[in-house]
């Protein structure tokens, strides 16, 4: 079974060149796979070897509500990413001109431009018109397209970091705002509580005000009633004082006439000297009664109307006594001296005096009825009359002393009547003044009555207003209480945050979703992730190289008695052995040179050998069936498998045609199996891939056996091929 394969291999021991050929066959896949993986082992970890420029034109901006604190976000960003390894690339701060020239020449792989309004836009997030801050990253695909893609990722990380910092700062200010709101609300709650206390006191005060205004209104009502009564009394006083003034005028006229009569009496007094003795007694009696009248008049001044009425009665008694006795004496004188003209004249004068006294008595009586508050002036008038009566009494006494003194007594009587007349005039003037005052009093009381009415209306409005004020104060008290309670409850619901809490919350809000990228069956390096593809490529190329150097089948055995299957096996076993050697050398180099590791080492090696066995069976078939053209077909298959095996990107991202042919190509299953085993994934996937590779290997060997059977007959085309590679 192995004699033919060994015979095929033994021919490589004859010469050094053939031995070297064997080494080349084994090493070529390792060189191919090793170089590719080495160059792509960890490109992201070496980005700091790529120079990039950063142009900072930011002019800074003043932070809002910060008392002049300035934000220089552009420089902060420069300071953050320019240290080696901090910003992905090796960032160098340059001018705009240097950055443009460096990007065009390929010195810089990227240029990050920070505009002049960068800080201003960041600060605007805390104002009324927020705007987004912008960064500009420039790359040049003419120098390297992949770097441009990587630069985009780096820009996203920078942007995310800035967004997180800016958002955290903004949210921190928001939480500080909560603290300010809490503080101001607390002040408002305290103020509302004080307002509630004041409103309560106001309500109490308005309640007292309502009581006071009610009492005031009641008092004003009483005042109004009193003023109405006063006005009525003032009207009566006005009328009475008017009547008193009229009576006083009449009295003054009467005393004037009495004065004139006393003059005539003085002329005839000498003729009545004989009767004056009796007249003196009468005058004394009249004087006593007049004194009684005066005392009673004084009682009127001191007291009341009853005394004035008694005084009037006494005055009437005195007038009756005086008039009766004097008339009797005069009549006696007339009887004694009927022809004496002086006696006759005296009788006429005495009669006139009596009439005057009657008239005076009547007017005094009327004045008594009408005068209520004029007692003082009436007393003066009575005093004046009493003075005259006393004078008359004295004169009558003098008349009684002697007739020679009658004329003198009559003169004295006349003088007294003059004074009486003057007193009556003063009485008349006083009564007129009293009437004028009463008129003014009436006008004043009328105005006071009207004013009291207005005052009553005002007091009623004041009561209504104070009542409404009390109701309003009650509502204010209730409302301020509700406000105080509401503010207190609201205050309890407004949170406050200390510095540590603000920072923690700001970080959470700035990045509310903490997304962790979790890799199941993660590999240690980017190169390990690509190793399944590059190992498969290396082993496919190893199969191509193997059957470029060795024969696909031992052609001389075709003309022997060996079976076709044995012949096919004889050509396949050397290739299989080379494939196993290629796998061993390749993984040895990867392990020691690149620190390659696999999740399942043993199964990875066994699966790789299976893939090499499958690839070699396909190459054997191509070369055995088509010779040089078969090798060209193997190369075409390589290109198709590179596009459809899904080694770098999932095959689903490739055009539809590659997705269709992918399941029918051996490298697709080799890549899937190796990727699973290297990463330590689901062994079922690797087992499926292994079954497919075994099936493809068996199909290829069967097909090669068929080809061997056909090769036993040589045709002219084989002897003279139209194309030989």
Automatic annotation (TrEMBL):
Name under which the protein is recorded? Putative membrane protein
TM ranges: 20-38, 530-555, 567-590, 596-615, 622-643, 683-708
Give the ABC-2 type transporter transmembrane domain ranges: 508-704
Q: Where in the cell is it found?
A: Membrane
Q: Name one GO cellular component term.
A: membrane
Biological source species: Brevibacterium iodinum ATCC 49514
The principal localisation class reads membrane
What ranges does the record give for the region Disordered, renumbered to this chain? 257-315, 352-373, 445-479
Topology relative to the membrane, per the entry? Multi-pass membrane protein
Keywords, ordered alphabetically: Membrane, Transmembrane, Transmembrane helix
């Amino acid at each position: 079974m192995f004699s033919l394969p060994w015979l095929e291999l033994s021919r490589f021991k004859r010469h050094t060149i053939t031995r070297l050929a064997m080494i080349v066959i084994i090493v070529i896949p390792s060189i191919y796979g090793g170089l590719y993986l080495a160059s792509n082992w960890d490109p992201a970890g070496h980005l700091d070897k790529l120079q990039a420029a950063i142009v900072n034109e930011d002019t800074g901006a003043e932070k809002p509500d910060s008392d002049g604190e300035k934000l220089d976000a552009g420089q902060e960003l420069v300071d953050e990413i320019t240290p080696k390894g901090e910003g992905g690339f090796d960032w160098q701060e340059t001018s705009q001109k240097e950055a443009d020239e460096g990007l065009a020449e390929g010195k810089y792989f990227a240029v990050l431009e920070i505009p002049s309004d960068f800080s201003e836009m960041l600060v605007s997030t805390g104002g009324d018109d927020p705007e987004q801050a912008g960064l500009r990253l420039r790359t040049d695909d003419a120098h390297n397209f992949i770097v441009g893609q990587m630069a985009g990722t780096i820009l996203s990380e920078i942007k995310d970091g800035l967004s997180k910092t800016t958002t955290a700062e903004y949210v921190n200010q928001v939480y500080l705002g909560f603290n300010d709101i809490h503080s101001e609300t607390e002040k408002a709650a305290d103020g509302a509580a004080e307002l509630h206390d004041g409103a309560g006191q106001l309500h109490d005060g308005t309640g007292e005000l309502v009581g006071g205004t009610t009492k005031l209104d009641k008092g004003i009502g009483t005042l109004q009633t009193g003023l109405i009564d006063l006005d009525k009394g003032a009207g009566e006083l006005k009328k009475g004082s008017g009547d008193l003034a009229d009576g006083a005028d009449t009295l003054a006229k009467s005393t004037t006439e009495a004065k004139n009569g006393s003059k005539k009496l003085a002329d005839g007094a000498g003729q009545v000297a004989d009767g004056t003795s009796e007249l003196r007694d009468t005058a004394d009696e009249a004087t006593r009664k007049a004194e009684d009248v005066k005392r009673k008049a004084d009682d009127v001044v001191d007291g009341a109307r009853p005394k004035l009425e008694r005084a009037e009665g006494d005055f009437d008694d005195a007038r009756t006594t005086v008039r009766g006795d004097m008339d009797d004496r005069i009549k006696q004188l007339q009887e004694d001296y009927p022809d004496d003209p002086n006696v006759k004249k005296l009788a006429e004068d005495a009669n006139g005096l009596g009439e005057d006294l009657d008239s005076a008595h009547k007017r005094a009586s009327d004045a008594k009825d009408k005068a209520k508050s004029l007692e003082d002036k009436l007393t003066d008038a009575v005093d004046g009359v009493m003075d005259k009566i006393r004078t008359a009494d004295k004169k009558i006494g003098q008349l009684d002393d002697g007739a020679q003194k009658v004329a003198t007594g009559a003169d004295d009587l006349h003088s007294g009547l003059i004074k009486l007349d003057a007193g009556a005039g003063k009485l008349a003037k006083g009564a007129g003044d009293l009437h004028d005052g009463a008129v003014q009093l009436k006008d004043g009381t009328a105005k006071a009555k009207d004013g009291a009415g207005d005052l009553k209306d005002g007091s009623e409005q004041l009561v209504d207003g104070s009542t409404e004020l009390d109701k309003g104060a009650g509502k204010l008290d209730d409302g301020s209480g509700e406000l105080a309670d509401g503010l207190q409850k609201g205050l309890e619901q407004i949170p406050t945050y200390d510095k540590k809490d603000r920072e923690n919350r700001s970080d959470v809000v700035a990045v509310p979703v903490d997304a962790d990228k979790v890799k199941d069956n993660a590999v240690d390096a980017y190169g390990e992730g690509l190793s399944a593809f590059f190992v498969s490529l290396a082993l496919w190329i190893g199969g191509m190289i193997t059957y470029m150097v060795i024969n696909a089948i031992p052609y001389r055995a075709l003309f022997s008695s060996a079976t076709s299957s044995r012949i096919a096996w004889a050509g396949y076993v050397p290739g299989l052995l080379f494939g196993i050697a290629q796998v061993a050398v390749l993984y040895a180099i990867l392990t020691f040179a690149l620190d390659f590791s696999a999740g399942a080492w043993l199964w990875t090696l066994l699966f790789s050998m299976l893939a090499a066995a499958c690839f070699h069976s396909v190459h054997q078939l191509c070369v055995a069936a088509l010779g040089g053209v078969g090798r060209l077909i193997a190369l075409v298959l390589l290109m198709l498998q590179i596009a459809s095996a899904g080694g770098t990107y999932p095959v689903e991202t490739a055009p539809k045609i590659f997705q269709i042919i992918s399941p029918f190509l051996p490298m697709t299953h080799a890549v899937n199996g190796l990727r699973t085993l290297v990463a330590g994934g689901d062994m079922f996937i690797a087992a499926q891939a292994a079954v497919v590779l075994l099936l493809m290997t068996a199909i290829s060997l069967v097909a090669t056996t068929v080809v061997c059977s056909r090769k036993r007959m040589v045709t002219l085309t084989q002897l003279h091929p139209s194309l030989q590679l």
